[in-house]
Every structure is written in structure tokens, then in C-alpha cells.
Write a structure and sequence with these properties.
binds zinc ion; about 0% helix; two-stranded antiparallel ribbon; globular
Length: about 60
């Protein structure tokens, strides 16, 4: 599932990382350039999976 979003940079922070639809479906949003990426590995905000330290420790 892919979604094309055109969002102003100032509004990126208000977009949730995980969208929950009423039908129960979920969509994980990955926006390039957003200030706080969500790691798909440990689900911690602040880094992406490629940079995941492999721990649940939050800096
Ligand atoms: Zn991580």
C-alpha cells in the first residue's frame, strides 16, 4: 500500500506515524525529511530501521 502525500513541512509533525482506519486497517507512514522518524524495528521515534541500535533504549 502506497500513499502519495503532499504535505507542508510545518504540518508533518502533526501527522501520526501509524494511521488507524475505522475498518481496522493500519498504514505505516514514512515521510522523507520528517523530523522524527519512526523505527520499524523497535518502534521508537527518533531513528529509522537502518540506524536502529537494536535496543529499546531511548536516548
Ligand atoms: Zn530502532
Amino acid at each position: 500500500m502506497r500513499m502519495l502525500l503532499e504535505v507542508e513541512a510545518e504540518k508533518m509533525r502533526y501527522i501520526p506515524h501509524l494511521l488507524n482506519f475505522k475498518c481496522g486497517a493500519r498504514a505505516l507512514l514514512t515521510l522523507y525529511g520528517r523530523p522524527s522518524p519512526l523505527c520499524q524495528r523497535c518502534h521508537t521515534v527518533g531513528h529509522i530501521r537502518m540506524d536502529c541500535p537494536g535496543q529499546f533504549t531511548v536516548a
